[in-house]
Write a structure and sequence with these properties.
The protein is an alpha/beta fold. It folds into three domains: 166 residues, Beta-Lactamase (2-Layer Sandwich), CATH 3.30.450; 159 residues, Reverse transcriptase/Diguanylate cyclase domain (Alpha-Beta Plaits), CATH 3.30.70; 241 residues, TIM Barrel, CATH 3.20.20.450. 55% of the residues lie in helices and 18% in strands. Strands 10, 11, 12, 13, 14, 15, 16, 17 and 18 form a nine-stranded mixed sheet that branches. It has a five-stranded mixed sheet with strand order 6-7-5-8-9, sandwiched between helices. Strands 2-1-4-3 form a four-stranded antiparallel sheet, covered by helices on one side. A hairpin with a 2-residue loop joins β11 and β12.
Length: 652
Amino acid sequence: MTLYRQLLIWMLVVFFTLITSVFIIQFNTTRNFLHEQQSTEIDNAISAVGMALAPYLEVNDNVAAESVINATFDSSFYSEVHLRILNPSSESNDTTEITRSYPTTVNGVPDWFQNLILIKPITRTTTLTSGWMQLAELTVTSSSIHAYKQLWQASLQLLLGFTGTFLVGLLFLAFILSKVLKPLKSIQLSARQMSKNQFGEPLIVPKIRELKDVVIAFNHMSAQLKIHFDQQAQEADNLRIRAYQDPVSGLANRSYLMTQLNSWLSSSSQGGIALLKVDLIADAYTFDGYETGDHLVQKMSARIKELINDDHTIARINQSEFILLAPNITAKELTAIGRSLLHMASELQSDPLDLAPTQASVGLVMRSNNDNITTLLAQADNALMQAKQQPEPLVLFDLQEQHDINKKTIMGKQQWKALVDEAIANKLFRFNFQNAIDQNHNIIHQEAFSYIQKGSQQYLANQFLGAIEQLNLGSYLDIHIIDELISKLNNDVTLGKIAVNITKSSVNDTGFIRWLTNKMQSNPQLNERIIFELPEICFIKHGNNTGLLCELIHQNNFSFGIDNFGHNFSSIGYLNKFRPAYVKLDFAYTHHIEDQIKADVLASITRTANNLLITTIATRVETISQQEKLAKLMVLGFQGYVVDKINKEENL
């Protein structure tokens, strides 16, 4: 029970007790007054009747005496009148009696009230005399009808008055307490946010002396904690920059590139690399100094970052050379990227007439099945050398296409779209689920990987997803996938929490956002069983749309995670703003953690996330020893080959 309710209840109890006491006192006073009024009225009536009857009794005019009694006692104040006339002249002492009885039924007063409140009638007896001679004996008994009616009306008025007073007092006390305790309520809400490491604006300092000191201390503590978390996030960013980022360009360095190349070549993903050499930058370093060269590098890097994608990696490997790694694209798309790089490099030149040759060249290499890092980079160097000798300084090496016997089976974007349309229409989509576990091997969630099963042929998502994204049809695919998974969850209550990936184009599609909002509102029972996974690039390049989607997810009590966290070298400070349930670390941060610098970077990132109550999950964890090392660096979740191995051992 809240302090507000406790104070209000106890104050109302005291107030009710006081009102009840006043009510009882007033009720008893009214009842006693009515009782006394009966006594006074009966005494007055007897005195008046005695004086009126005496002349008639002296002459033994009984008829006149009876008329006086009937005229006097004809109201509801009396229940019985008895007159016993004495005859002193008679030797036998004969008496004449006159008796009058009146109704005692009380109309308009509930029976329970008459039974609960007892008002006894009053009886008075007096002897009427004339001098020393006794004429008659008069006995009058009062009636409680009038007293009950008066007391009932008074009780109703008191009850209504005190009830109204109590209700007005209740509202007044509630208002006063809410005003007095408003600063305390603000402290409570702020404390609740602070427990979740959320820091808002400082609280308004109240005028109440006791609360004023508390609020000032609370604001100071909140500010200090916010500074601490900001410094922690900045520390993680600084460590990451030193380990993986080129300090001049802000792009990835050679170490990070090698990790990404190794990860790419160890997978079945296709694609290629683009090696850009900008001679203008090399000449600037040689002839104009480092300041001019750094300025050109920064301008070039700012333009190259426009090509950034969630899958792409862009790195600066020396003074004037840049590499772009682009998985899951075709040779035609890689060539378009190469031409964009040349155009960006030409913008650095001071050539208003656009007549000077471009002082840059690009070597493009499409990956083949037998490539390794050494052969791939060697091909890129050879392509770059050939590009320098051609009018258009761009050369593409595509050995796989040259040796591919079945190159007619290569599918374009429209063919992939047609396949996806067919799969949706004929329900050809299937799902594989990969567990993410914690240190105790408990399942955090299952990530859903979709593929198309057409006859005996399987098409994995990474084969067609790039084409679908380029055609801005990601929302069309996501709607079908999410619908299918929601149906599975509704039909199978034993199915655990599922993480479903949402494409970048869906995040920027307001129609998809409305659809997903309606879907969440119509399936509130699934808020603990489905989680949406968003690519990190959306938080960097499309912050407004992503923020809207995240807010709607939170409002409907669902949750979301971030994929490829750290891939794009943005500040991790945005975590405190968006509050995801988990982040999946980019492979570069969890690979080769025997290097102390890389281990320090990972520990700093995980510490920041864990302090914000955000689970950090490492992907592609292959061995138990790797899992143990990651656990020591405060990674809380694991996903990859080691998870499948653990599950098999536990099932055995």
